[in-house]
Amino acid sequence: MTKKQVYILLTDTGSFFTRLIKLYTKRPYNHASISFHSELSEVYSFGRKKLSNPFNGGFVKENVKQGLFKQADCAVYSMTVTDVHIEKMKRYIQEIEEQKEAYRYNFLGLLGFIVNKPIRRDKAFFCSQFVATVLMECLVVDFAKPSSLIAPYDLQEMLELELIYEGKLKNYHHKGRVDEYYLPASESVMNIYSLDRS
Predict the structure, then answer these.
(1) What is the DSSP secondary structure assignment for residue 183, as one 8-state letter?
(2) Residue 64 lies in domain
């Protein structure tokens, strides 16, 4: 089977809502997205549907060159999977996109995460729960806890990921264009963690 890459994008947009989450997590990145393109031309997540209203959330196809992302800090990771896994993930996301009006942002689940009590709601996700669920449902990876307790930093720690870029999102360039913002191959990070960690 052909090997392909899926990309996990973690960001800090500096929004009021993100700053509130950051006060709790104490971590630099508190939003997670997934893409199948190295240039991040199509990025999927759960977040605000309108820039002016952080409480109107759901499934979103994000434009990383506009809005809150224009000044965002980020980390971009790649993960090697099979073409079969890629197609499963694409179909799973497509099914959600086709019913996107029925999906909501899982604010209640976010509260459950804060108190460490998983709250799974039908057709509702928060960002890292969505990314984790895509990976779990398509048998790419397993986690030691429910997807409703997965934070962006858990994605960093629990997946076989290679860090390919960290810095300002506006300075990110896809593979094939080498500049000072890319980590040299010798400095890239591969984190392989046991799935049965507590």
Answers:
(1) P
(2) 3-191
